[in-house]
Records
---
Amino acid sequence: MARMSIDEKIDQQKEVVLKIKEKYDAAVAELEKLMRKRDEIRNKKLLQAIADSDKSYEEIMRFLGTEKEEIDE
C-alpha cells in the first residue's frame, strides 16, 4: 500500500474544499434569488395595500415617519 505524500494530501483536500465551495456558492445564489422573490412579493403587496387604502399620501408618509419636506427635496 503506497503512502500519500503531504503534497498529494494537500491536493486531494483542495479538491474537497473546491467541491464544497461550489455547493456553498450555489446555495448562496439560491438563497439570494429566493430573498429577491420574497422582496418583490412584499413590495407588490405593499403597493396594493397603499392603492386600496383610503389614506392620503401625506397620512401614509406621516405614519411611516417620513416628513413631507424630506420627500419633496
---
Amino acid sequence: MLMQRVGLRLCVGMLVGALAAGCYPGGIETVSQTDLVATFFQKGVDFTANKTFDMPDSIVDIGVAAGATSTLKHQYDTQILAKIQAGLVALGYTRVDATATRPDVIVVVSGITVDNYSAWVGYPWWGYWGWWGGWPAGYGAGSTWYYPWSPVVVTGYTSGSLFINMIDPDLATPQPTQAFSIWAAAINGMLEGTDAEILARINTNIDQVFAQSPYLRTQ
C-alpha cells in the first residue's frame, strides 16, 4: 500500500495493521503489503528557489530516543542514500559539499528500531546529527526540529521505518536554533523482512516518495 501526500496540518495517524486488514482480507503474505508512504510539506514554500543540497552519509537510529539499543540495519545505508540522492538529482537538485559551499537545503535520513514511534515531534536533534560538519552556524546543543505541520503526531510507525527530512536553513523559525523542515517523508517498516525484500522495497518505496512530491522540482 503506497500512500499519501499530506499538506500542512492534515492528520495522517494511521495504524498499518488496520490498513492492511482492510486491503488484504485474505491475509498478508509479504512484509511489503503493509508498506505506507506518507509525505508532508510546508505550503507556500517556493521549492523552485532551492537548487543545491547536501546530506550526511549515514542513517541515524533515532529510536534510541525511546531508550532502545540501536539495532538499525546499516548495511543498507549506501543503497538508501544513493537512491534518495538520485531522486533529488532527477528533480533538478545538485549536490554540493556543505563544508565548502552552503547548500540551499540539507537532507537528513533516520530510522527507528522500536514500534509505535511518535514522529514529527520537535525533539533536540544535535546529539544525533551534530557530528556532521556541514551544518551552518547557528545550530548546536539544544537545537530542535520545527515541523510546520505539527501538532500532527503519528504514533503508528513500526520498527524499521525510515524518515527523510529536508531542512531549509535560511527560513526563520519561531525559536532560535530550530531547524525548519519544509518537506518530509516516512516509509513505514521498510527495513523489515529478508535482504531481498528490503532491497526491492528500497527502490519501490523511495520512488513513491518522489512520485507523490512533484512540487519538489527546482523548475
